[in-house]
Amino acid sequence: METETGADRGEVVLRLVPHLTDINANGHIFGGWVLSQMDIAGGIVAARIAQGAVATVAIESMTFITPILLGDVVSVYATEERRGRTSVAIRIDVVATRGIGMEEVVLTSGVYTFVALDAQHRPRPLPVV
């Protein structure tokens, strides 16, 4: 996979350090932990675009590229990929800064789809751009 610059990935929405309690049986960070962080970051960007509440409706694609290690500083990048009438797809890339050399390692990538919600929690049209 080609290395991207931060500008190519979109904005850093979250920056976190996983805890000891986030380790799975293999000694890596639990995949569900990173999925959750991606959903939070994507939701922040989608809500900004929708100018209101959104709900995750799909994870269209998800690729785990390399494990997340204890001690990694994890950055979650998000950018709008495409927009429908009531939904928006957000590309989310997760990158670690690792070790003393501050090596940047691409961890995972995915596309999450969010739908804008009205006051009754039903889909509503996105604001016109």
UniProtKB/TrEMBL annotation:
InterPro entries: Cytosol_ACT (IPR040170), HOTDOG_ACOT (IPR033120), HotDog_dom_sf (IPR029069), Thioestr_dom (IPR006683). The keyword Chloroplast does not apply. Belongs to the acyl coenzyme A hydrolase family. It holds the Pfam family 4HBT. Gene3D superfamilies: Hotdog Thioesterase (3.10.129.10). One of its GO terms (cellular component) is cytosol. PROSITE patterns: HOTDOG_ACOT. It comes from the Bacteria. CDD domains: BFIT_BACH (cd03442). Keywords: Hydrolase. One of its GO terms (molecular function) is long-chain fatty acyl-CoA hydrolase activity. This is Acyl-CoA thioesterase. Residues 8-120 form the HotDog ACOT-type domain. GO terms for biological process: acyl-CoA metabolic process; fatty acid catabolic process. The keyword Ribonucleoprotein does not apply.
